Amino acid sequence: MKQFVYNDKKLTKFIKASGCAAKLDPSGLTQSIAEILEPNAKILSSLNSNEDAGVLMLSSDLALVQTLDFITPVVDDPFLFGQIAAANSLSDVFAMGANALSAMNIVGFDKCNFSQEILHEIMAGGKSKIKECGAILVGGHSIETKENIYGLSVTGSVHPDKFWSNNTAKVGDLLILTKPLGSGVMSTAIKGDMASLSQIKEAVSIMSQLNFYAIKACDGLEINAATDVTGFGFLGHLSEMLNERVSFEIYENVVPVLKSAKDLASQGIIPEGSYKNAHFTKNLCNKEANILLSDAQTSGGLILSVPDKDAYKVLANLKNAGYERAEIIGTVKSKGEFGINLV
User: Fold this and answer.
1) The domain containing residue 34 runs over which residues?
2) pLDDT for residue 48 is more than 80
3) d(Cα 213, Cα 198) in Å, to the nearest integer?
4) What pTM does this model have?
5) Catalytic status, residue 133
6) 72: which strand partners?
């Protein structure tokens, strides 16, 4: 077994908030974007459901998938931070059921507190994940900033009729979550020097795991809708999957959560962004939810809405592909009083 090496360079000590917990409030962001985006016949992806990436028609059998994402450090090791940030950026393409073709670095670097060697390690970590999924690093852009940020602009491809949307779940589907929740709590604990090395190792393992392999696990099977879980938390991103015909029934106690995150959350170690997320979704839920269901994730797993006939095959494939904590966490019901029913 490969030894876990953690090169602690104090990256998280010079930032206000870690990873996707630094995202803008979801309610304000949605309003701002709605006033900017305009429909176009070539845009295939929805403009009003906060899709993970944009899908642009190029021809009858080819569509371009574009996204960008960047985050502040969630761990203190520069190489591992680069890996997690890249996995987080690439995930938006995979959440659309697409292949990643190329990527460009997005860098904001705090050169007052960190040497050029640190920047090299961050980008080397990112490159390792780009190569792992078969994409090509083609360049990038950098500026000097007060806080370190790193991420990617990613270009992918997909058949115009086969990409996954986030709001097309159908009644009778089963909902699968591919990774456990809790990375927001873990990142907060790491920033506060309250996480053990074994807890850091577990968090890094989850956050650096590419969602690329989940796409392969679903090959040939029907997926009605999908999204990835990041800064708005599980319930926030689940709410983006609602449509006028469906509600969700969620088996609250089955949703996988890292044990370390449960332990640390019980001590009050919860990122501020998680409380904002909980406030955003509270009126959609039939009861008050565990705050960990709103935990602001970085490089979280996918939520897949899968027809019953394929769901257990998808789940078995996911576990064989390395998503050992993947679980069926709910069902899609006809539209009811609440969008999300926790049972």
Assistant:
1) 11-158
2) no
3) 25
4) 0.94
5) no
6) none
